[in-house]
Amino acid sequence: MKPCRGKFNSELVIMLFFLLTPLIEILNSNLLMNFGGDSVLGKIYRFFYILAMFVILFKDRFRKKSLNKIIVFISIITFSATIKGICFNTNFIETFFIGSKYLLPVMTFIVLEELNNKNKLKNDFFYSVMYKYSIILPFTYILPLILKMGYYQYSNHIGYKGLNYQINDINIIFGCTSLFLLYLFIKTKHIKYATLTLLNVFCLLYMQTKTSIIIVALSLLVSGLQYTKGRNRLIKLVIQIMVMILIISVISTKFQDQIIGYFARLNEMYVYMTKQGYSFFEFLTTTRSSRLSQIQYVYDFDKLSGYLKCLVGLPEKQFLNSEMDFFDIFFRFGIGMLLFILIFFIRPLIIAIFNYTYSKDIEDAQLLCIYSVMILFSAFGGHVLMSAYSGAVLALVGYEIIRRYHFIRIKQGEVKCH
Questions:
Q1: 50: which residues sit within 8 A by CB, 6+ positions away?
Q2: At what angle do helices 167-188 and 123-147 cross, to 10 degrees?
Q3: pLDDT digits (tens, 9 = 90+) for 85-123
Q4: What DSSP character marks residue 380?
Q5: Residues 371, 136: contact at Cβ < 8 Å?
Q6: Quick one: CA dihedral 268, 274, 280, 282, positive or negative?
Q7: Who's near 278: CB < 8 A, 6+ residues apart?
Q8: What stretches pass through the bilayer (predicted)?
Q9: What's the pLDDT tens digit per position in 230-264?
Q10: Would you give the distance in Å from CA 80 to the centre of its chain?
C-alpha cells in the first residue's frame, strides 16, 4: 500500500490561509509593540492571501461572472482609497491595504462557491474542519466575557477583545465563517446552520466596530448577489436577515446600551473637538493617540473609561506585558499543540462519553469535544492566549490531513485514498 500522491489542493490552500490569520495577527501585533513601525507582516499576509485566491480562480478557469464580482469589490476599495487620499492626504497604498481586509471574506466565499460548483471540494475534509471552526470561533469571544478575562478588560466589561488581539482582523474571520454558514444554510435549509450563522453574526455586531458593520453589509450584498434572482427575492432575503438581527438586538439589552453609549460618547468627543477648532474631516482622520490626549483633560476616566477606552484606544503596553517576546509567543504556540496531542490520547474516553448522545455522528462529536476542551485549556494560558489557540488549530489541520488524505483505508475489500 502506498500513500496518495500530493497534489495542489485548492480548498486546503484557502483553509490554511484562513486558519493562520490569528497567528499572523499575533506576530504582527507583537512586532508593532516591541519594534514599532508599521504593520508590514499583516499587509504581506493579506497580499499573498488575495494572490492565492486569484491563482485558484485562474488555475481552474472559473466563470467570468464570479471574477467580475471580485473586480467590482476591488474597484470599490481602490476608489475609496483614492478619494480618501485626495481628501485626507493619506498614502494610497496604505489605505488600499487596509481596505483589502474587507475583500478577504468576499473572495473566500466566491472561490468556495466556484469550487463547489465544479465539484472540487472534498466535503468530508474541508467542511469538517470549517464547520467545527465556525462553532469554536464564537467561544473565543464569548468565553472571555463569561470568565472576565482577555485583552482590554475595561470597566463595565465593555471593549473586550476576547482571546483576540486585533479585533478588526478577527472581524474578517467572523465574516468568513458567517458567509460559510450562510452558504450551508441556504443549500441545506438546516436549522443548525441558521443558529450558527446568527451566533457568528451576533459576535460580529457585538464588537461594535466599523469593520464589523462593513462586513455585515458586504455579507448581505454578496449573499444577495450569489443566491437570489430577481428583486423580490433579494428584498425578502435582506428583510429576513435584518429581522433576525433585530430580534438579537431586542433580546440583548446590554448590546443596545453599548451601541447607544458608543454613539453618545462619539458625539460628545466630536462636540469637544469642534469647540477646539477642529473640522469634521480632521475629527475623522485624527489618530487614536491624539484623540486620547485631547479628551483626557475633559472627561473623568474613572467614570467613562469603559466607553472612552473602547472608543479611542490606549497604548497596548499599559494592558499587556511589555517584556513579552517571541519566545513567549512560540512557547504558548507549542503548548497548544501539546494540548492537542495529550487530549488526542484520551479519545476512547471521549468516545465513550459521547457515544450515547451522538451515536449517529460519533467521529464529529468526539473531535468537536477535543477541540472545545483544547480551546478551554488554552484560554488560561496568559496574555498571548491566541498563540496556544493557533498552535492547536495547526495541529487540528495536520491531524485532519493525515487522517483523511495520507492514510490508505480499506473499506469493503477496496483500497481507497482519502
A1: 100, 103, 104, 107
A2: 130
A3: 555 555 666 666 666 666 666 677 677 667 666 665 555
A4: T
A5: yes
A6: negative
A7: 286
A8: 12-33, 39-58, 70-86, 92-112, 124-147, 167-186, 198-222, 234-255, 329-354, 374-402
A9: 555 545 555 545 554 444 444 444 444 444 444 55
A10: 23
